[in-house]
Design goal:
heterodimer, A: mainly beta, B: about 110 residues, 6-stranded mixed beta sheet, 4-stranded antiparallel beta sheet, about 50% strand, globular
Chain lengths: ~120, ~110
């Protein structure tokens, strides 16, 4: 149980385009979802926390207009990277937390490359 | 703020060797401590955790003891297997409910047959 999926697993896009990444909890209801960014050989950095039906809470330094997060249902959160640029290339990882859980369950990550 | 420092990798060991991956932390109060493992192409999985000083977390032959006096939570395994090859992350949280995780940079472990 407690499986989290991400789609797509990798994406390549042109500079200036927008990319949407989906995060789904497959067998539980996720009241909270987290989005992380990971640079090569570096730690996971929390970007934002989203609760179902409310606006996401962004960490300091994360542009909310660039990284749009929507948590419209208890099983789906989306991260949209708007007007992507090469510096947005990274590995994006989501995690989900259910009401009865005391640990986060992580998705496999999405590799974004912006040309 | 909180921070977690892990030994830099990559670490390469022969099968059945002893493993230690060092982890130290800086935090106020009494955080909960975690080790996560990330196998190739997969998401992070919780490996073990400890929520108070002197607690020992263990799973799949891995162990780590919460040492408040040295602010450490080193990961150990007596005899590694090829299947243990992965990236290992040390992490902490204050809330006790796994929110707001602070991660170390990760340590790549490769076990050779």
């Amino acid at each position: 149980g407690a499986v989290v999926s991400q789609h797509p697993s990798w994406v390549i896009c042109k500079s200036g385009t927008s990319v949407k990444i989906e995060c789904r909890s497959l067998d539980f209801q996720a009241t909270t979802m987290f989005w992380y960014r990971q640079f090569p050989k570096q730690s996971l950095m929390l970007m934002a926390t989203s609760n179902e039906g409310s606006k996401a809470t962004y960490e300091q330094g994360v542009e909310k207009d660039k990284f749009l997060i929507n948590h419209a249902s208890l099983t789906l959160s989306t991260l949209t990277v708007t007007s992507a640029h090469p510096e947005d290339s990274s590995f994006y990882i989501c995690s989900a937390l259910g009401q009865k859980h005391n640990e986060q369950f992580f998705g496999p990550g999405t590799r974004l490359t912006v040309l | 703020g909180d921070s977690v420092t892990q030994m830099e990798g990559p670490v390469t060991l022969s099968e059945e060797a002893f493993l230690t991956i060092n982890c130290t932390y800086t935090a106020t109060g009494y955080p909960s401590l975690f080790w996560y493992v990330q196998y190739p192409g997969e998401g992070l999985q919780l490996l073990l955790k400890a929520t108070k000083a002197d607690d020992k977390g263990s799973n799949k032959g891995f162990e780590a003891t919460y040492r408040k006096e040295t602010t450490s939570f080193h990961l150990e395994k007596g005899s590694v297997q090829v299947s243990d090859s992965a990236v290992y992350f040390c992490a902490l949280t204050h809330s006790g409910s796994a929110r707001q995780l602070t991660f170390g940079s990760g340590t790549q472990l490769t076990v050779l047959p």
